[in-house]
What does this fold into?
Amino acid sequence: MLKPYAKYKSIPELWITQIPDNWSYRKIKYLFNERCEKGYPQEPLLVASQNMGVVPKDVYGNRTVEAQKDLHLLKLVKVGDFVISLRSFQGGIEYSYYQGIISPAYTVMAPKEEINSGYFRHLAKSRMFIELLQMCVTGIREGQNIDYTKLKNHLIPIPPRKEQDQIVRFLDWKLAKINKLIRVKKKQIELLNEQKQVIINNAVTKGLDKNSYTKDSGIKWIGNIPEGWNIRRLKTVGEAIIGLTYSPADLTDENDGMLVFRSSNIKNGKIVFGDNVYVNCKIPEKLITRIGDILICSRNGSRELVGKCALIDEKSKGYSFGAFTTVFRTQYPEFIYYVLNSYILKNIMGLFSTSTINQLTTSILNNIRIPFPPYDEQRKIVSFLDEECSKIDIMVSKIEREILLFQEYRARLISDVVTGKVDVRGIEIPEYEAVPDDVTEDEFDGENAMDDEAEEAEVE
It folds into this structure.
C-alpha cells in the first residue's frame, strides 16, 4: 500500500497546488529549450502518436499521409525530445524514441540535464498535466492546438534527481505488469471476434441448413452456396453514396451545426458518439442518414480499418457523414450488413491493396458480388446472427469493462506518483520485462481520424 509523503508545501500553480516538501518547482521554459532546427530532408519522417510516442512512419504503420515535398522545412527531433502535436491537449505531450523530422506545426521541446526525460515522459501523460494543456489551447474544436507561449510559463514539480530516477523505475515496472494483463484481455476479445466472424461467414455464405443442396458460386473465396441462392452485385440491391465534403471553415459547435459521422464514430460494428464533429453548411437531403443505412469507412490512414461498418438506427438517424465514409442504402440492410462483416469484404480488399491511398471506392463497393438468398431465408439468417452475435458481444463488453478498470488504475497511478501524492522511495524494484501499451486499430483510428483528413488536404 503506497503512502503519502510526510510533509507537503504549497506551489503557486493552477493545475497542482502542493508538492512534497523536498521537491522543487520551476517554469517549463527553464527546463526545456525549444528546438526549431530545419534543413534535414534526409532524416526519416516521424509521426507523433498518443499511444506510441514519436516514432518513424514505417514503425507507426500506414496510417498517415506522407509528405512528399518541402522536407527541408520540417523540424528536427532528437532522441529524448518531446513533441507537442495536434492532439496533445487530449492525450499529453509525446516522447521521441527516434531522431527524424516532423511537421513544422508541432513544437519540439529539448530537455535540459536537470530533468530526467523518463520522469517528464510520465508526467506529460498524466491526467493532471493534460488538464494543464487544456488550459493552454487556442482555436476551437478541431482547430485547437496548444499555445506554447502560455504553457512554458507554467510550473511543474521537480523531485530530486535520484528520486526522479526511482519514480521512472517504479512506474516502468508497474506499467509493465498492468500492460501485460491488458494484453491478455485484448487477446481474449480478439479470439471472440474471430469466432463471431466465422459464425457470420458461414451463415451468409452457406445458410443455416447444413443438409441443403449446393452449387458452385463461381467465386473462389465464397465456394459453394445453397442451390436456391443467387450471386448479385451490390449495385443491384442498393446504392453507394459518398459522404459530405466540408472545409475547416465549416466546423462549428454542437449548438450551431450538424453532426457529421466519421470513421472514428464506427466501433465494433456500431455507431458511437464521443469523437464528434459538427459543421454549418448546406447538406443535401441524400447525405442525411436514415434508419437502415449502412455507414462504411471507405477511406482511412489504416488499411485494416477500411470497410468497417455500422447500421444506422433510431439514435443515429438524421445526421450527415463525411467524405471518408460511404453509406450503402438498401432494402435489405440487416443481411447486407452481415455480409459486409464476413470474410467476403476482406478478400475484396486485395483489389486496392497496392494503392498508396487506402480507399474502398463506390466502384469497388458496387461491384462486390455477394451470395443472395430469398428474402424469407435472409430474415432467418439475420435472426440467427442477431442472437449468436449478441451472446459474443456481451462477453466482449464484460472484458472491455475489465480493461477500462485496468486503464483507469494505470492513469491514476501515474498521476499520483509523478505529482508526489504517494511516496515510492525505498521500494525495491525487481527484474522485469518491459511491456509497452498494446494499442488496437480502433484506438489509432480515434486519435487520427481528423489528422488523416487534415494531412490529406495539406498534401493535395
